[in-house]
Amino acid sequence: MRLNNFSTKLNPPGVLSVGAIDSTNNILTESTTNEFVDIWAPGENIYSLDGSNINKFHGTSVAAPFITSLAVLIQNEWSDINPELIEKLIKEGATKYKGRWGTQNKNIRLVNYKDSLKLCSSTKTR
């Protein structure tokens, strides 16, 4: 199910909406692409188990675990951190990029583990 036309007024703090990019950092056609996407992660040719077989998958469903794992790493560094600050560190640590979706250019934030974790360390010591 694709939620490209899904619209909501809910944007709870501490929750990240994830989109998927391809190997050239352009937005996948299999990705959620609405205006609520906060962060983009790899979502093309991601290997995963499919029953007892290993297959390639595409889309937002395989991009989201990249963001979840970064949130876990941040929480591992700073055990009493709140979800809103995790969201902020992931967004602020992201690399700004102009991605293509069809014929359109969109300003997107690409997940950046290194910069988000560096930001976590510097914020934590303040």
TrEMBL record:
Domain Peptidase S8/S53 stretches: 14-97
Gene3D superfamilies (UniProt xref): Peptidase S8/S53 domain (3.40.50.200)
Organism listed in the record: Bacillus salitolerans
InterPro entries per the UniProt record, alphabetical: Peptidase_S8/S53_dom (IPR000209), Peptidase_S8/S53_dom_sf (IPR036852)
Family label: Belongs to the peptidase S8 family.
Protein name, per record: S8 family serine peptidase
Pfam families recorded: Peptidase_S8
